[in-house]
Amino acid sequence: MMTRIYLASPHMSEEGYEQAYVKGAFDTNWVAPLGPNVNQFEQELADYVGVKSASALSSGTAAIHLGLKALGVKEGDTVFCSTLTFSASCNPILYLGATPVFIDSDAATWNMCPKALKKAFEDAIKRHQLPKAVVVVNLYGQSADMDLILELCQKYNVPILEDAAESLGSTYKGRMSGTIGDIGIYSFNGNKIITTSGGGMMVSNHEAYTKKATFWATQSREAERHYEHKEIGYNYRMSNVVAGIGRGQLKVLNERIVKKKEIYETYKEAFRDIEDIEMMNICDFGESNYWLSVMTLKETSQVKPMDIMLALEKENIESRPVWKPMHMQPVFKQYPFFTATDDQPVSEDYFKRGICLPSDTKMTAEQQQHVIDIIKGLFK
Ligand SMILES: *Cc1c(COP(=O)(O)O)cnc(C)c1O
Fold it and tell me: What keywords are assigned to this protein (predicted)?
C-alpha cells in the first residue's frame, strides 16, 4: 500500500521552531496552563493579523462560544450564521440558549450571501427581533464579501463574529481575514493551515472582548488572593506547551500559504480541459490562503463526486465532500433558513457537487500528479 496522501495534516517546520519553544516550556517547567508562550503567541498572532488584542483558547469552538457571549448573546436571542460550514460555527449559539438562523451562500464566494442576509434582516424586522450577532464564515480560506455584509449589519447595528478558522492569513481588500468583524476567531486544530494539535484564538480591536474572554476562560477568577467568583467560568485557556507549538507554526504560515496556492494552481491547470470539472472560484477582492483545494462537478457529469472519492480512497488518498449545510442537518433542521434563490439553494448545490481534494503541504509533486492522474482517468 502506498503511503497515505492526506487532505491536510500537521506540518511542523523543518527548522524545529515548535520543538524549541516547547523545550523552552519544559526547561523552565512552564508546563502549567499559563505561561510566557501563551502571552507571546497572543502578541505575535495579533501583530501578524494587525489587530489590537488576542485571547488564546483551547479551541476555535471555545473562541466562538466566548465571542458570542462577549457580544451579549443569551437565552432567547437569535443569531444569524452561514449555513455552509462546519457545525462548530453554530453549536455555540445553542450552548448559549439562543436560536440559529441559517443564511445561504453566494455562488461566487461560497460564503454568506448578502441578498439572503438582507431577506433574513427584513424578516427579523417584521418579527421585531433583530439578531444579537451574525456569524460570518470564511470557507476553505476565502473571505466572504465583507463590505456588503458589513453595510447591512451596520444598518441594523448588529455585530459580526468572523469565523476565520479556515482563513488565517487570507485577506479581503488588503485587510486580514478575521479582523474585519467586531470579533474574529481562528482554529489551530490538526488539519488547519497551522496547528497546535488543538487550540484557538479570539482577536478583536476592542480589547474589552478579548480580556473578558481570557477572564471567562480561566474560570472567571477575580483578582483576589483567595478564589473569588462572581460569574460562571470555563476552562478554555490555551496551555503554555500548546502555545509554544503555535509560536513555531506562525513562523512558517506564509510558507504554507505559498505551498497551498501552488497546490490549487496545479489542480486548476491539470483540470483545465476537463469540462465537467470546475475549481472553486477565487474572488479577486482578496488573497485566499487556499487551505483546501475544492472542485465541483457539473450537474450533467457522468462521473459523480462519490466515484472520485472512492477511486482516490482505493489508492489510500483522502478526500471529502464539501460541508453539509447546517440547515440540512437533522440536529438543526427545525431552525429558520434564508436563501436568495427560488431554485436549489447554493449551499445545497455545492454540497452535492463539491469535493475537497488532497491539499496537504507535505504532499510531493509526484503525489499530487498521482491524484490528478486518478481523477483524469475517470473522464477518459
Ligand atoms: C475547524 C473549524 C472550527 C472549529 O475549530 P476547533 O478548533 O476545531 O474547535 C470552526 N469553524 C470552522 C469553519 C472550522 O473549519
Answer: Aminotransferase, Pyridoxal phosphate, Transferase
CB 180 within 8 A of CB 161: no
1-10, 24-33, 102-111, 247-256 — which is least confidently predicted? 24-33
> For the segment 219-265, what is each residue's pLDDT rounded down to a tens digit?
999 999 999 999 999 999 999 999 999 999 999 999 999 999 999 99
Ligand 1 atom nearest residue 198's Cα: 7
C-alpha cell at 69: 457571549
- 366's CB contacts (< 8 A; 6+ apart) are none
Instruction: Compute φ and ψ for 211, nearest 5 degrees.
Output: -65, -45
Q: Ligand 1 centroid vs 139 CA: distance in angstroms?
A: 11
Question: pLDDT of 172-186, one tens digit each?
Answer: 999 999 999 999 999
Place of cell 464579501: 145
- DSSP code of 329? S
Cα-to-centroid distance, 359 and ligand 1 (Å) = 17
- Write down all domains in the chain, each with its CATH number in brackets: 17-250 (3.40.640.10), 253-378 (3.90.1150.10)
pLDDT score of 277: 98
Give, using CA atoms, the residue closest to atom 2 of ligand 1.
165
Helices marked H in 81-135? 91-95, 114-126
Other beta carbons within 10 Å of 336: 16
Residue 331 CB-density burial (10 A; 0-12 exposed, 13-18 middle, 19+ buried): exposed
The pTM for the full model equals 0.97
| pLDDT at res. 362 | 96
Closest ligand 1 atom, residue 166 Cα? 15
User: Please, which pLDDT band fits residue 215 given cuts at 50, 70 and 90?
Assistant: very high
Q: Would you say residue 361 has pLDDT above 80?
A: yes
Q: Is 19 helix (H, G, I), strand (E, B) or coil?
A: helix
Report the length, in residues, of the chain.
380
247 in Cβ contact with 42 (< 8 Å): no
Q: How far apart are CA 6 and CA 195, in angstroms?
A: 15
As given in the structure block, the three cell numbers for residue 122 are: 427584513
Atom of ligand 1 nearest to the CA of 189: 7
Reported as a pLDDT band with limits 50, 70 and 90, residue 33 is: low
Q: How far apart are the first and last CA of the chain?
A: 25
